Amino acid sequence: MKTSILFLALSIALLAFPADYFCQALRFYREDIQIEVKKDECILTGIYYFANNSGLPVAQNLYYPYVVNDSLPLPHKAEVKALKTGKTLPGLNTAKGLIFTVEAAPHDTSIIEVKYYQKTPMHMMEYILTTTKEWGTSFEMAEYSVKLPSNYRLLDMQPQYENKKKSGKYRMFFTLKRNYLPQHNFVIKWKEDNHEKVKR
Prior knowledge:
The chain is mainly beta. Helix content is 6%, strand content 57%. 30% of the residues are buried.
């Protein structure tokens, strides 16, 4: 069998695994991503859905890369949890990402939450989506949202938001995609709006 490196778009990448077996066994079919903007950092929460289509249990090591550059330093904290069990999963930190194991019972699904904290000195945040093209399968569903304090102004969001609402001291921006194969990363830019009046 041909061995290749497949990337699960969320930004989740696989480490050298037989492609035909993987596609039959573990299928990455949905992600929900929220970026919450704080004063000097962002909290990114990703929920990822995997289906095990085989009759055997699967335990697969995944590499989860971050965007790390002059504008975005390496996240200073990361947490991984299996939502069905509530179990915290151990992770191995690397120079630009995190390695952890996803387990799924035969003909079952696994739902993983990754949360990380990254400083944002340039008032921008970027999350990797384009590796989905390497995976070659579109998401059945994907949701991207931004939680922004009301005294901040959203300058740009890609993919563009389709809906927005106000909740307390925050504005929320959402977009929901179906049969989605991303062509660009999830990027947001914002600025502080000192003239914005927060309704109470």
